[in-house]
Amino acid sequence: MVKNCRRTQNMWFHFERHHKAEHAKISKPNVLQNLEISTKPIVKNEPDNMPTKSQKTVPEMYAKKQHYPQKSERSTEITQAVAKFIAGDLQPLSVVGKAYFKNLLSVMDPKYELPSRRYYTMNVIPEMYTSVGTNVELELKECESLAITTDGWTSRACQSYLTVTAHGLDSNWKQHNYVLATRMLDVSHTGVNVGEALAGVVAEFGLQRPSGTAVVTDNAANMDIAAKAAMLTPHVKCFAHTVNLACQKGVKVQEFQPLLTKVRRIVSFFHKSTTATALLKLNQKNKELKLIQDVSTRWNSTYDMLQR
Question: Are 117 and 96 in contact (CB under 8 A)?
Fold first, then answer.
């Protein structure tokens, strides 16, 4: 007999393979009726390797799924929706390679095959940029009054950029606001270099007007040269930046510095100590408030810090 067998099915297969004569005798219908074992595994006449109805055949398991053609209307619609999600929500292009994002799309529409990251980088996103850029250019041409704003900034990766925005009014007094470009500035931020970058954006979107195109910048000296180099007039200095400069000079008076230094030390102490922060929360009766650290480029942050 077969050892370590807990089911009669194993015994039945043992008889079938090793005791064919005995197996033939007990395989008759009248004998099966007297057996107390299940007839399901033994009444089948198929070979042992034949699959049941609940199992898939090997060709079915490895058959290629039927997907939409890549250029079909439905596939293009979903691909464009993913591109809008990436661009509109500022998502990295690597999101199309994430397992759970792929799973989400496969659940929503199993017939859709998500293109690769390279396909989005080389085809979908550039085509969308061209299409949107053309529409923006046409709308800005309808604006009778137009002004642009620009400012430089540095990313966390220590890369310098210049961003240009446009603001216009059409004949129906409808306002149009667009972020036109963010250009990397890997050269010195001289007025001439900034002016060349500005002139490139102005030419690309056709922003010049016979009456002139105003530009708003901060109060940096290089921006005066940049506005002249890009032939943008009038050049308006940012009012908020002017107020900030005036307030910063007021904060730096000698009589005020000792108090400001003490307050900054107190705020820094609580920001660096988790124990002190926990005690601060514990001793606040009405409402939990965090201390505010001021920023040198925001005069109102100093006011908020002192008030808190």
Answer: yes
CA angle 9, 10, 15 (to 5 degrees): 95
Instruction: Supply 242's token pair.
Output: 């002017």
Of 102, 108, 109, 111, whose CA–CA distance to 68 is shortest? 111
Cis ω for the linkage preceding 234 (within 30 of 0): yes
> What is the pTM (predicted TM-score) of this model?
0.63
- What is the per-residue pLDDT across 260-298, written as a single tens digit (0 to 9) for each? 999 999 999 999 999 998 999 888 877 888 899 998 888
The token duo for 187 is 């050269």
Counting other chains too, the contacts that 96-99 makes at CB distance below 8 Å and 24 or more residues apart are 96/120
Task: State which amino acid sits at residue 176.
Answer: H
Q: Distance from CA of residue 4 to its chain's centroid?
A: 57
Cα separation, 229 vs 222, in Å, equals: 11
Three-state DSSP at 226 gives: helix
Phi, psi of 25 (to 5 degrees): -70, -45
Q: What is the bridge-based pairing of β-strands 160-170 and 235-237?
A: unpaired
To which residue do tokens 């293109």 refer? 115
Q: Which residues, listed in sequence order, are joined to residue 151 by a DSSP beta bridge? A: 163
Helix, strand, or coil (residue 306): helix
Residues with Cβ < 8 Å from 263, sequence gap 6 or more? 305, 306
